[in-house]
Amino acid sequence: MRTSQSPCLIIKIEVLLLVALPFFLFAAQNTTDILKEQAKEYRDQGFQYQQLGDLDTALAFYAKAAQIDPQYAVVHNDLGVLYEAKGDLDRAEKNYLKALAIDPGYLSTYTNLALLYEHKRDLEKAAFYWKKRAELGGPEELWTQRAKRRLEDIRFVTSDNPLKYGREQEEMKLIKDVIAKKELLEKDNHAIAMEYFNRAKEFYKKRNYISALRTALTAQNFDPSLEGLDAFIEKSQKMALSE
Asked: What is the number of domains present in the chain?
Protein backbone atom coordinates (compact mmCIF):
# COMPACT_ATOMS: atom_id res chain seq x y z
CA MET A 1 0.00 0.00 0.00
CA ARG A 2 1.47 3.32 -1.06
CA THR A 3 1.27 6.40 1.04
CA SER A 4 1.65 9.87 -0.34
CA GLN A 5 3.08 12.77 1.61
CA SER A 6 0.75 15.55 2.48
CA PRO A 7 1.22 18.71 0.43
CA CYS A 8 1.20 20.62 3.71
CA LEU A 9 4.05 18.49 5.05
CA ILE A 10 6.12 19.09 1.93
CA ILE A 11 5.57 22.82 2.20
CA LYS A 12 6.60 22.76 5.87
CA ILE A 13 9.82 20.89 5.03
CA GLU A 14 10.65 23.36 2.26
CA VAL A 15 10.02 26.31 4.56
CA LEU A 16 12.17 24.71 7.25
CA LEU A 17 15.03 24.25 4.78
CA LEU A 18 14.76 27.83 3.60
CA VAL A 19 14.87 29.05 7.18
CA ALA A 20 17.74 26.78 8.15
CA LEU A 21 19.88 27.38 5.04
CA PRO A 22 21.29 30.76 6.15
CA PHE A 23 22.32 29.20 9.46
CA PHE A 24 24.11 26.37 7.67
CA LEU A 25 25.87 28.85 5.39
CA PHE A 26 26.81 31.01 8.36
CA ALA A 27 28.19 28.00 10.21
CA ALA A 28 30.24 26.96 7.17
CA GLN A 29 31.62 30.48 6.74
CA ASN A 30 32.35 30.68 10.45
CA THR A 31 34.29 27.41 10.26
CA THR A 32 36.31 28.73 7.30
CA ASP A 33 37.12 31.93 9.20
CA ILE A 34 38.20 29.93 12.23
CA LEU A 35 40.53 27.78 10.10
CA LYS A 36 42.03 30.83 8.44
CA GLU A 37 42.61 32.44 11.81
CA GLN A 38 44.24 29.26 13.08
CA ALA A 39 46.47 29.17 10.01
CA LYS A 40 47.46 32.79 10.63
CA GLU A 41 48.37 31.96 14.25
CA TYR A 42 50.56 29.08 13.08
CA ARG A 43 52.19 31.36 10.52
CA ASP A 44 52.89 34.02 13.18
CA GLN A 45 54.44 31.40 15.45
CA GLY A 46 56.56 30.13 12.59
CA PHE A 47 57.78 33.64 11.84
CA GLN A 48 58.80 34.11 15.48
CA TYR A 49 60.90 30.94 15.37
CA GLN A 50 62.36 32.02 12.03
CA GLN A 51 63.45 35.30 13.61
CA LEU A 52 65.15 33.31 16.37
CA GLY A 53 67.01 31.23 13.80
CA ASP A 54 65.13 28.00 14.55
CA LEU A 55 64.32 27.14 10.95
CA ASP A 56 63.14 23.58 11.58
CA THR A 57 60.47 24.65 14.08
CA ALA A 58 59.49 27.57 11.88
CA LEU A 59 59.13 25.20 8.93
CA ALA A 60 56.87 22.91 10.97
CA PHE A 61 54.53 25.77 11.86
CA TYR A 62 54.45 27.07 8.29
CA ALA A 63 53.62 23.58 7.05
CA LYS A 64 50.72 23.37 9.54
CA ALA A 65 49.42 26.73 8.35
CA ALA A 66 49.57 25.64 4.71
CA GLN A 67 47.82 22.36 5.52
CA ILE A 68 44.94 24.15 7.25
CA ASP A 69 44.67 26.87 4.61
CA PRO A 70 46.15 25.68 1.27
CA GLN A 71 45.26 29.04 -0.34
CA TYR A 72 47.43 31.03 2.08
CA ALA A 73 49.85 32.68 -0.36
CA VAL A 74 52.00 34.33 2.31
CA VAL A 75 52.82 31.06 4.04
CA HIS A 76 53.79 29.38 0.76
CA ASN A 77 56.21 32.24 0.21
CA ASP A 78 57.51 31.70 3.76
CA LEU A 79 58.00 28.00 3.05
CA GLY A 80 59.92 28.91 -0.08
CA VAL A 81 62.24 31.19 1.90
CA LEU A 82 63.00 28.48 4.46
CA TYR A 83 63.49 25.69 1.93
CA GLU A 84 65.86 27.95 0.02
CA ALA A 85 67.75 28.73 3.23
CA LYS A 86 68.08 24.99 3.87
CA GLY A 87 69.38 24.41 0.33
CA ASP A 88 66.28 22.67 -1.04
CA LEU A 89 65.90 24.84 -4.13
CA ASP A 90 63.34 22.64 -5.86
CA ARG A 91 60.90 22.80 -2.95
CA ALA A 92 61.58 26.50 -2.60
CA GLU A 93 60.73 27.05 -6.27
CA LYS A 94 57.56 24.95 -5.97
CA ASN A 95 56.28 26.98 -3.01
CA TYR A 96 57.14 30.34 -4.57
CA LEU A 97 55.25 29.38 -7.72
CA LYS A 98 52.33 28.17 -5.61
CA ALA A 99 52.23 31.52 -3.82
CA LEU A 100 52.04 33.38 -7.13
CA ALA A 101 49.39 31.01 -8.48
CA ILE A 102 47.25 31.91 -5.47
CA ASP A 103 48.07 35.61 -5.44
CA PRO A 104 49.73 37.01 -8.61
CA GLY A 105 49.96 40.38 -6.89
CA TYR A 106 52.21 39.20 -4.04
CA LEU A 107 55.30 41.20 -4.98
CA SER A 108 57.80 39.70 -2.53
CA THR A 109 57.56 36.35 -4.28
CA TYR A 110 58.66 37.83 -7.61
CA THR A 111 61.81 39.08 -5.87
CA ASN A 112 62.38 35.73 -4.19
CA LEU A 113 61.97 33.82 -7.44
CA ALA A 114 64.32 36.17 -9.27
CA LEU A 115 66.99 35.66 -6.61
CA LEU A 116 66.40 31.91 -6.59
CA TYR A 117 66.90 31.65 -10.34
CA GLU A 118 70.05 33.76 -10.09
CA HIS A 119 71.29 31.25 -7.51
CA LYS A 120 70.48 28.45 -9.95
CA ARG A 121 72.25 30.40 -12.74
CA ASP A 122 69.04 30.50 -14.77
CA LEU A 123 69.42 34.14 -15.75
CA GLU A 124 66.63 34.04 -18.33
CA LYS A 125 64.05 33.20 -15.67
CA ALA A 126 65.69 35.56 -13.20
CA ALA A 127 65.34 38.41 -15.69
CA PHE A 128 61.69 37.47 -16.27
CA TYR A 129 60.79 37.76 -12.58
CA TRP A 130 62.86 40.92 -12.04
CA LYS A 131 60.97 42.43 -14.98
CA LYS A 132 57.61 41.41 -13.49
CA ARG A 133 58.61 42.86 -10.10
CA ALA A 134 59.64 46.13 -11.73
CA GLU A 135 56.41 46.34 -13.74
CA LEU A 136 54.05 45.56 -10.85
CA GLY A 137 55.68 47.68 -8.15
CA GLY A 138 55.21 51.38 -7.54
CA PRO A 139 57.80 53.52 -9.36
CA GLU A 140 59.16 54.97 -6.11
CA GLU A 141 59.38 51.68 -4.22
CA LEU A 142 62.87 50.60 -3.17
CA TRP A 143 62.52 47.06 -4.50
CA THR A 144 61.06 48.31 -7.77
CA GLN A 145 64.22 50.34 -8.30
CA ARG A 146 66.40 47.41 -7.28
CA ALA A 147 64.54 45.12 -9.68
CA LYS A 148 65.14 47.53 -12.55
CA ARG A 149 68.84 47.79 -11.74
CA ARG A 150 69.22 44.04 -11.40
CA LEU A 151 67.46 43.50 -14.72
CA GLU A 152 69.89 45.94 -16.33
CA ASP A 153 72.81 44.09 -14.73
CA ILE A 154 71.68 40.74 -16.13
CA ARG A 155 71.16 42.20 -19.58
CA PHE A 156 74.56 43.85 -19.36
CA VAL A 157 76.56 40.74 -18.48
CA THR A 158 74.67 38.45 -20.88
CA SER A 159 74.55 40.77 -23.87
CA ASP A 160 76.69 40.43 -26.97
CA ASN A 161 77.07 44.20 -26.72
CA PRO A 162 77.40 44.86 -22.96
CA LEU A 163 78.04 48.58 -23.26
CA LYS A 164 74.54 48.98 -24.66
CA TYR A 165 73.07 48.05 -21.31
CA GLY A 166 75.44 50.08 -19.09
CA ARG A 167 74.17 52.41 -16.41
CA GLU A 168 74.13 55.63 -18.40
CA GLN A 169 74.59 58.09 -15.56
CA GLU A 170 77.60 56.37 -14.03
CA GLU A 171 79.25 55.81 -17.38
CA MET A 172 78.76 59.42 -18.40
CA LYS A 173 80.25 60.62 -15.13
CA LEU A 174 83.30 58.47 -15.68
CA ILE A 175 83.75 59.74 -19.23
CA LYS A 176 83.45 63.35 -18.05
CA ASP A 177 86.05 62.74 -15.34
CA VAL A 178 88.48 61.43 -17.92
CA ILE A 179 87.78 64.20 -20.41
CA ALA A 180 88.30 66.77 -17.65
CA LYS A 181 91.94 65.73 -17.44
CA LYS A 182 93.25 67.74 -20.35
CA GLU A 183 96.69 66.35 -20.10
CA LEU A 184 95.33 62.86 -20.54
CA LEU A 185 93.74 63.80 -23.84
CA GLU A 186 97.15 64.63 -25.18
CA LYS A 187 98.42 61.11 -24.51
CA ASP A 188 97.98 58.05 -26.69
CA ASN A 189 95.22 55.44 -26.48
CA HIS A 190 97.35 53.24 -24.25
CA ALA A 191 97.44 55.91 -21.52
CA ILE A 192 93.69 56.47 -21.75
CA ALA A 193 93.09 52.71 -21.54
CA MET A 194 95.30 52.54 -18.45
CA GLU A 195 93.23 55.28 -16.80
CA TYR A 196 90.02 53.33 -17.38
CA PHE A 197 91.66 50.08 -16.32
CA ASN A 198 92.80 51.59 -13.02
CA ARG A 199 89.28 52.87 -12.40
CA ALA A 200 87.94 49.40 -13.16
CA LYS A 201 90.27 47.91 -10.55
CA GLU A 202 88.99 50.43 -7.99
CA PHE A 203 85.40 49.42 -8.71
CA TYR A 204 86.38 45.76 -8.36
CA LYS A 205 87.97 46.35 -4.94
CA LYS A 206 84.70 47.95 -3.83
CA ARG A 207 82.85 44.84 -5.08
CA ASN A 208 81.03 46.91 -7.69
CA TYR A 209 81.56 44.25 -10.34
CA ILE A 210 79.12 45.62 -12.91
CA SER A 211 80.90 49.00 -12.98
CA ALA A 212 84.27 47.24 -13.01
CA LEU A 213 83.24 45.21 -16.06
CA ARG A 214 81.79 48.19 -17.88
CA THR A 215 84.86 50.35 -17.25
CA ALA A 216 87.24 47.58 -18.29
CA LEU A 217 85.32 47.16 -21.55
CA THR A 218 85.75 50.88 -22.20
CA ALA A 219 89.49 50.47 -21.60
CA GLN A 220 89.48 47.62 -24.12
CA ASN A 221 88.02 49.96 -26.75
CA PHE A 222 91.10 52.21 -26.43
CA ASP A 223 93.73 49.46 -26.19
CA PRO A 224 92.68 45.79 -26.63
CA SER A 225 96.26 44.63 -26.07
CA LEU A 226 96.56 46.08 -22.56
CA GLU A 227 98.30 43.52 -20.35
CA GLY A 228 96.01 41.70 -17.94
CA LEU A 229 92.84 43.34 -19.29
CA ASP A 230 91.25 40.27 -20.89
CA ALA A 231 91.69 38.21 -17.72
CA PHE A 232 90.28 41.07 -15.64
CA ILE A 233 87.19 41.32 -17.88
CA GLU A 234 86.57 37.59 -17.61
CA LYS A 235 86.98 37.69 -13.83
CA SER A 236 84.66 40.71 -13.46
CA GLN A 237 81.99 39.09 -15.63
CA LYS A 238 82.00 35.95 -13.49
CA MET A 239 81.71 37.98 -10.29
CA ALA A 240 78.89 40.09 -11.76
CA LEU A 241 76.93 36.95 -12.58
CA SER A 242 77.40 35.56 -9.09
CA GLU A 243 76.13 38.65 -7.23
From this structure: 2
Write the pLDDT tens digit of every residue in 133-173. Answer: 999 999 888 889 989 988 888 887 776 655 544 444 455 45
CB 177 within 8 A of CB 218: no
Which CATH number goes with the domain that contains 46? 1.25.40.10
Burial of 106 (0-12, 13-18, 19+ CB in 10 A): middle
AA identity, residue 173: K
Domain membership of residue 48 (yes or no) is yes
